[in-house]
Amino acid sequence: MHATPPDPSPHRIRRRNVLRAAASLALAGVVGVPRGSAAADAAFPATPANALGPFYPARKPADSDADLTQIAGHAGRATGTILYVTGRVLDTRGMPLAGTELELWQANAFGRYHHPSDTGASGPLDPAFQGYGRLAADAEGRYRIKTIKPPPYSGRTPHIHFIVANGATRLTTQMFFEGEAGNERDGLYRHLSRDDRRASTGRFVERAPGMESDAVVTAWDIVLRA
User: Fold this and answer.
1) How far apart are CA 123 and CA 181, in angstroms?
2) How many CB atoms lie under 10 A from the CB of residue 111?
3) Which of 33, 94, 185, 201 has the fewest Cβ atoms within 10 Å of its own Cβ atom?
């Protein structure tokens, strides 16, 4: 039996190099690679910044927990489809950022914000909807929010506003929803690049045990660039 001579084809050599690079990137997501390396920068694209918007709360509600569907001391539940937003806060190496602080705010089921500049023309207020929440990611960078799915309103596709802060790093952004007909017409969404759209969009996943049977769940990882 004759040994097969090595294949000197430049095409095959290039292909092997590409496969090695891909394997390195896959491992980077599992074990991490040194900060600042090209592989680290490519492994987890950073979530892009987006507009703060005009309706950041002028006054924070007394109840500012991660369940926006109920207000302490008030009977009843917010109008609308219950939405859980779950995910992790990571750095660009894929490492969890424990204790990261998150703020979120959004329109109620009628398309109105708890803000003095948003008037009744947008729809009624919902006295059972908190409208704003604040929480911290756990030791593994995970977070979970219970809210209602926001509707589209004049000029905007459904979205939730976020401020995410870890040490000196602070990101103001917006989360969009996969499959929404209004995404391509939204003035902020349509100016994002394809990669930034992907990084800004939550995907719908199966409910976890204990979640309401009529709830929907969105998974969205937030990636911070130091």
Assistant:
1) 21
2) 17
3) 185
What are the backbone dihedrals phi and psi of residue 196, each rounded to the nearest 5 degrees, phi first? -70, -35
For residue 135, give every residue at least 6 positions away whose Cβ sits within 8 Å of its Cβ, in sequence order, or none: 65, 66, 101, 102, 143, 145
The Cα-based distances of 144 to 22, 99, 124, 221 in angstroms read 31, 13, 27, 11
Angle at CA 81, nearest 5°, toward 130 and 112?
45
Instruction: Name the CA radius of gyration of the chain, rounded.
Output: 21
Instruction: Give Cβ neighbours of residue 165 (< 8 Å, ≥ 6 apart).
Output: 100, 101, 171
In degrees, rounded to 5, the angle at the alpha carbon of residue 201 between the alpha carbons of residues 85 and 149 is 45
* Confidence (pTM): 0.81
Question: Residue 115: helix, strand or coil by DSSP?
Answer: coil
Please give the span between the terminal C-alpha atoms of the chain, in angstroms, as a whole number: 57
Report the DSSP beta bridge partners of residue 134.
Answer: 103
Return d(Cα 226, Cα 136) in angstroms, integer: 18
pLDDT 10s digits, 197-220: 999 999 999 999 999 999 999 999
